[in-house]
Amino acid sequence: EFMQASWDIEEVQAKGIQHLASFVKDKSAFPYLLTCTEVITLAMKTHIVSLDLQVEGCILLLEILSQALEEGVMMALDESVASCLLHTVRKHSENEVFLSMLCTLLMMASASEVAVENLRKVGIIPDLLSILRRLPHNEKICLSCCAVLWSLAVSENNADQAALARALPVTSAVLQEHLQNGVVAESACSALWALALQGCLADSDYEPTAALLLDALRMNPERAVLVKNACLALASLVRLSETAALAILLDPKGSGIELIKDEYHLHLEDPGVAEALCLLMNEMVQYDEVMLDMRSQKVEKLLCEIKLQFPFS
C-alpha cells in the first residue's frame, strides 16, 4: 500500500523494494512475497530510467522465482508483469550485465505455461532474437534466451509461426558459437527441436541443421539431455525431409549411424536416450534408400540390443 500510494516517487519505490527484499530469507514471508510481483514490476516500469531500481527489482524477482521453483510453486506472471519486463528489456538492452539477469528471470518464469502465453502475447520473440544477434558470445544470455524460445515454440497456443521462422538462423548461430559448451548447446538443441516440430525450416535448412546437430552430439557425447534433445530434433527434421536423413548417413565428418551406436552404448542405462534414438531410426526407415543403408550398417543388431536392454518399455 505504501508503494502504491506513491508511484511517482522513485525513493519510495526503491525503499519499498529494499524492505521487501529483507523478507526473502524468512520462509514464512514467501506466500506474501508471491503476491508482490506486480507491485515490483510496476515500480520498475514507472521508474524505467533508474538502473539501480531496475537491478534491485530484478534481483528481488529472481529471489522470489527461485524460491517458488524450489517449493514447487508454479508462479504465473500475468500479462501486465510480462509487459513491464519486456519494457525493461527494451529500455536497458545495451546493459549486458543487467540484460543477463533479466534473461535469467524470463527463463525461470517460462516454467509456467501461463507466463509463456503472456510473454507470447506481449510479443517477446523479436526481442529475444535481437538480443541473441547482438550478444552471441554471452553464454548466460544464450542459455536463457534459447530456453525461453523452446518454451514459446512448444506452447499449446503457439501463433507465432512467422516470428519463430526467423529464429532458426539465430539459434543455429548460437549452437555453432557454443558447440563446446555443453549447457548452452543443450539449450540451443532443445530450441532447434521445437522449431523443427513447428515446421520453421525451409528446404535449404535441413542439411546444414542436421550437420550442426551431429556436431553437437560429437562435441558433447556424455551429456544425456543434449543427446536426447539433438536426436529428437534430428527425428523432427527427418520426418519433414529425406534430405535430413541422407545428411545423417553421408555426413563428411563420419557416419551418423556409427555416432548413434556410440551414443547408445555410452548411455546404456538411460531409457530417455534409447527412446530418442529409436524415434530417430523409426523416422529414417520411412525412406527406402536410407533403410537399405541402415541395414548394411547392421542397425538391426543395435535395435535387438535395445529391445533386450529395455524389454518392458
Explain the overall architecture.
The protein is mostly helical and 313 residues long. The protein has 2 domains: 1-122; 201-312. The chain has helices at residues 10-21, 30-33, 37-46, 51-70, 79-91, 96-109, 113-121, 125-134, 139-154, 161-165, 167-177, 182-197, 206-219, 224-240, 242-249, 256-266, 271-284, 288-296, 299-309.
Keywords:
ARM-like, 0% strand, mainly alpha, 2 domains, 313 residues
Largest beta-sheet details: none
Number of helix segments?
A: 19
Q: Supply the helix-strand structural class.
A: mainly alpha
The whole-number mean of residue pLDDT values reads 92
Q: Into which percent range does the helicity of residues fall?
A: over 70%
N-end to C-end Cα span: 56 Å
Structural shape:
elongated
Task: Give the number of domains.
Answer: 2
Share of β-strand residues: under 5%
Q: What's the β-strand tally?
A: 0
Catalytic activity: L-seryl-[protein] + ATP = O-phospho-L-seryl-[protein] + ADP + H(+); L-threonyl-[protein] + ATP = O-phospho-L-threonyl-[protein] + ADP + H(+)
Keywords: ATP-binding, Kinase, Nucleotide-binding, Serine/threonine-protein kinase, Transferase
Organism: Zosterops hypoxanthus
Protein name: Serine/threonine kinase-like domain-containing protein STKLD1
